[in-house]
Automatic annotation (TrEMBL):
The lineage of its organism: Bacteria, Bacillati, Actinomycetota, Actinomycetes, Micromonosporales. The keyword tRNA-binding does not apply. This is MerR family transcriptional regulator. InterPro entries: DNA-bd_dom_put_sf, MerR-type_HTH_dom, MerR_fam. Residues 5-73 form the HTH merR-type domain. Keywords: DNA-binding, Repressor, Transcription, Transcription regulation. It holds the Pfam family MerR_1. SMART domains: HTH_MERR (SM00422).
């Protein structure tokens, strides 16, 4: 194994992410591993940063298909992205706002049904 490269267990330990999830990230094209002759995964020295970025983007509600497109677009060592993908993030934010509005409307409707039902039961 090359210096600075990590086995999957080491990457899991360093990031606090379960091995199962690391395999999932790899299957989704979010994380790249090289295979040894014995078939063991080896991750490059940038894998810890990549996992942190994946976790941040997942926490922001982005689906893995979007994250896969964003992974090559980071500017610097943090989670800042290049200007060319900011419109894509704006679309994702607008979609999230729309879903929140829909959920808020559904919550109000459900609350109304519950209130009406509670009043009807109190009358009986």
């Amino acid at each position: 194994m090359e210096p600075g490269h990590l086995k999957i267990g080491e990457l899991s330990e360093r990031t606090g992410v379960a091995i199962r999830l690391l395999r999932y990230y790899e299957a989704q094209g979010l994380l790249v591993a090289r295979r040894s002759e014995g078939g063991h995964r080896h991750y490059g020295p940038d894998a810890v940063t990549a996992v942190a970025r994946i976790r941040t983007l997942l926490a922001a509600g982005l689906p893995t298909r979007v994250i896969r497109d964003l992974m090559p677009c980071f500017a610097g060592d943090g989670v800042e992205l290049q200007a060319c993908v900011l419109d894509h993030l704006r679309v994702q934010l607008a979609d999230l706002d729309s879903r929140i509005a829909d959920l808020t409307q559904a919550r109000v409707a459900l609350g109304g049904i519950l209130a009406d039902s509670t009043r009807a039961l109190a009358v009986v």
